[in-house]
Every structure is written in C-alpha cells, then in structure tokens.
Amino acid sequence: MIVTLTAQALFEFEQVAQACHWTEQQFKDTLIADGCVVLPYYSNNQLIAYLLAQCVCDECELLQISVHPDFKRQGIGYDLMSKLMTLLKAQSVHRLLLEVRDRNAAAIALYQKMGFVIDGVRKNYYPSVTGNRENAILMSVRL
C-alpha cells in the first residue's frame, strides 16, 4: 500500500529516519504553504524517502530530504535531488539553496557532486541529540 504523504505520515517516517526531526505541526505548515514541492520515493509501495522544498519567485530552498536508514547509500538522495533540479529548471527557477549539518559529510559530498558551492556557515544552528548545537553549512547551486 502506498503511504499518503500527510503531515502525520511524514512525521512518523522521520521518527525512524532522523535522530532530530521536525514536529508534525512543522510538516502540516509546510505542506499547505504556497510553493511547496513534495517528491516521494517508494519501493514495493512503501515510502522509503522523500524530499520537501519551498519555492518563492525564482529561488527554491531544500527543506528536508530523508532516506530510511535501510536504504541509505543507494543513490536515492541523488535521484531525488536530480528530479528536483530538473523540475525547477522546467519552472524557470534559477537557484536552489539548502543548509546541511556540518558533520554530515556524505550529504555535503553529494551536494558538491551536484554542483553546490558553500556560501557560509550558521554557527550553532541545529540542535543535536547530545544537547550541544551543530553548525549549518549554507550551500547553493545555479540552475
């Protein structure tokens, strides 16, 4: 059965996929916002990954990309990002922005492989499971 991408479904998915995750209300607010882009990724009718982005005028921000732990390192993140970039180019979006935890070396490498450059750092931006804060690396790519 294919999972309906409701705020509740995304929140429940995140309970498994991410140590630090959004609240169900954050998903609700994002899903109803103008310019919201949702790209699900299914395997055997089960949600195994998704991407959320928010577009405003000719720019878009990647808000969330999440892959189930059992399916990481299989190119799913790359596939989702490629689909997003193709979709955005077709809609005349000129720039894609994102932020990523500075300790997420795999994601940073993926984004750099896709042409993203580092624009800056937000110090102590993300909460962590240890109670400390983590820096966010700001990245963007021209489409």
Features:
Aminopeptidase, 143 residues, alpha+beta
Under the CATH scheme, which class? Answer: Alpha Beta
The SS-based structural class is alpha+beta
CATH fourth-tier homologous superfamily: Gcn5-related N-acetyltransferase (GNAT)
How many extended strands?
6
Distance between the termini: 35 Å
**Fraction of residues in helices?**
25-40%
In sequence order, what are the helices and strands, one letter per element? HHEEEHEHEE
Major beta sheet summary? 6 strands, mixed
Sheet-strand content, in percent, reads 35-45%
CATH topology: Aminopeptidase
Mean of all residue-level pLDDT scores: 88
Give an overview of the whole structure:
α1 packs across α2 (24-32). The chain is built from 4 helices and 6 strands. The protein has a single domain, classed as 3-Layer(aba) Sandwich (Aminopeptidase). It has helices at 7-17, 24-32, 76-90, 105-113, and strands at 36-43, 46-56, 59-67, 95-101, 117-127, 133-142. Helix content is 31%, strand content 39%. The chain has 143 residues and is of the alpha+beta class. It has a 6-stranded mixed β-sheet with strand order 1-2-3-4-6-5, with helices on both faces. The longest helix has 15 residues, at 76-90.
